[in-house]
Amino acid sequence: xxxxxxxxxLLDHAQDEIAVVTADGTFTYVNAAxxxxxxxxxxxxxxxxxxxxxxxxxxxxxxxxFDRTVRSDAYDExxxxxxxxxxxxxxxxxxxxxxxxxxxAYDGYVVSSRDITERVLAEETRxxxxxxxxxxxxxxxxxxxxxxxxWSEALFVNGAxxxxxxxxxxxxxxxxxxxxxxxxxxDLAGVIDGMERLTDGESVDIEYRVNPDENxxxxxxxxxxxxxxxxxxxxxxxxxxxxxxxxxxxxxxVVMDNLLRHTLRNDLNVILGTAERIAxxxxxxxxxxxxxxxxxxxxxxxxxxxxxxxxxxxxxRFGERIAVGDAVERAVERARTRHPNGDIEYVAGPxxxxxxxxxxxTAAVTELIENGVIHCDDRRPxxxxxxxxxxxxxxxxxxxxxxAPLPDVExxxxxxxxxxxxxxxxxxxxxxxxxxxxxxxxxxxxxAVENAGSDGNRIEITVPTDADESTVNPGGPTAxxxxxxxxxxxxxxxxxxxxxxxxxxxx
Length: 507
Description:
Elements (H helix, E strand, L loop, with lengths): L5 H6 L5 E5 L5 E4 L2 H6 L3 H4 L13 H12 L6 E9 L5 E13 L4 E8 L1 H23 L3 E6 L5 E4 L2 H6 L3 H6 L13 H12 L4 E7 L7 E12 L2 E11 L1 H38 L4 H29 L6 E3 H15 L4 E4 L9 E3 L2 H14 L7 E8 L4 E8 L6 H7 L3 H4 L9 H12 L3 E6 L5 E8 L19 H4 L20
Parallel strand pairs: 12-14
Antiparallel strand pairs: 1-2, 1-5, 3-4, 4-5, 6-7, 6-10, 8-9, 9-10, 11-13, 14-15, 15-17, 16-17
Helix pairs in contact: 9-10, 10-15, 11-12, 12-15, 13-15
């Protein structure tokens, strides 16, 4: 083509490939950008046809668009995306623009092409991720949803909403707040309050009843989080999980607990009263009636302990956290009040207020302290409680007593060896050890037991901590199952001289 004209020299500085092609697609001019984009010298392409460099899968579509544009009688312009071959035989994605205005100087049509490979690959990655997410959402039993920050639009809802809430996703896309029609009337105010809190930027964790077609017998657990951009809640994401079965189990536990506890307590009180009258009327039967009274008292204590366990398992607030020092001090105070004959020592360390642990640990520590006081032969039984760092963001609470060593069956319960703990013959009948185990398990902790000598135990509870003091509840209500309901049972007899280690499994 000879020396470059000023216009051609200018085109050679363009970042996009600029080409001129004839009506049959033959290159008559290509600027220098083709070398950086495709690896060809411009002269390599001049005289070649465009379509021989287009991916075979894309060539028919590109040719149809090209022919339709250049043959149009009226002005026409088109943009086409396709794969273009490079000098090494690989492919790049091109976005080419073409109009039917001819370039008189070159007797052809100007085509401007841009490399959009990175954009296409990013879109493919995003589309693949979206497809995977859609697949996961389609098979999830939970309702996955995304709403606009003001609840004006449902951006995404999967099909599980129809089974759980009794409403089709299509209806929510038409009316984003139609799901409120599926909420039990008694729970509606709480749900609306949760929606308002989300719009204000607060995360929400609630449970409520849904599905009028099933008489609102379904319970859902909802966790939702606002998505904030530049200080504004733009979207709200969350999930709803059907927890009806769990709610029913909790209800069954509570009902059976009430029936068993009240019946057992009432009947045992009758038995204890009768034994007292027999002892008065027949002094010679004092030994037998004392056995009746002792056994009845232990059963009453077991009923009270069973109540603590039920409260622990059904109380949804067991995730509340308390400073480890406060938890231990509460446990020590309760044990001292119930067992004034015990010598219970705890010296708080400088860091005991900076780490937070789940509040049920208070009940576990109380139980282990009382266990060490009750099951001993000393007139003034000693129990030492210590707190130290457990490493890896955890804290260790150590309870050392002078009582007889724990039986293996109870050690296995405390440390989580359930196969032995549930053995039908060599099982642990002590609800106290199960209470400790479940408190620690709910706290994601662990229990270790060592024999501290011929007489004594060293029991260590290790739990993860939260060093953020803002999460600590220093004095508010907690999910501690060893609170008010436990304070009435006395935790066992004051003193231990007539209570041997063999009796502990029946408490």
